[in-house]
Amino acid sequence: MAGVKVSYVVIGEQALKGLDGLNLRCKNPYPVMQDFAGYMVGSVQRNFDAQGRPSKWAPLKFTSLSGWIGSRKTWSTKAGNLSKTGREALAGRKILTDTARLRNSINFVALAGGKGVEGFTNVKYAAIQQKGGTVVIPSFTARKKKMLFWPGAAHPVKAVKAHTVTIPARPFLMFQDEDIYGYLFPRLTAFAEGR
């Protein structure tokens, strides 16, 4: 499967043995983990909203921004300047949320036995965004006159040479301390006490 997957085992074998004596239900806290899996989808959405938690993601490079702007024909004036609509869109531009495809593809499931949860997405470019790395861009020749147009470039551009691009890690599929200590552990305690 293309994409990225993150597992988080919350309850180890030693902890499960300790729970045996408390209550029979504690042997398999699967219902709590199912609830936590649903909660984690919202937590990852908050990672996107905050543009990285606990630390902010690396900002977009100028070349990424200019390519993004150039792909929207209505954002450039005839002189190649940015239109008012384009300036407003650029001011509100969020990292990893151009089409929201990645953001909307996040899923979490409870692991068998209720030991933890697993988060995943099947979007092909998710792994490079999560972990960072270098990507080779192959050479490209334009078949149409305006195919390779972006503001600020010397025109006409007829071809792009093969080159590498380094993408910084922007970990979006991650757990926060508040998820574990503020949400999950109180629910596991309540579950163990039969509440």
Key terms for this structure?
single chain; two-stranded antiparallel sheet; 3-stranded antiparallel β-sheet; 195 residues; alpha+beta
Structure description:
The chain contains seven helices and seven strands. It is of the alpha+beta class and 195 residues long. A three-stranded antiparallel β-sheet has the order 1-3-2. α2 packs antiparallel against α7. The radius of gyration is 23 Å and the shape is elongated. It starts with a strand and ends with a helix. The mean pLDDT is 76.
Furnish the topology, listing elements before pairings:
Blueprint: E1 4-9, H1 13-20, H2 30-50, H3 62-70, H4 84-91, H5 101-104, E2 107-110, E3 116-121, H6 126-131, E4 133-137, E5 140-141, E6 159-160, E7 163-167, H7 177-192
Antiparallel strand pairs: 1-3, 2-3, 4-7, 5-6
Helix pairs in contact: 2-7
Strand content: 15-25%
Quaternary state of the chains:
single chain
What distance separates the N and C termini? 39 Å
Tell me, rounded to a whole number, the average pLDDT. 76
Short description, anyone?
With about 200 residues, this protein is an alpha+beta fold. Helix content is about 35%, strand content about 15%. It has a domain at about 1-60 and about 100-125 and about 170-195.
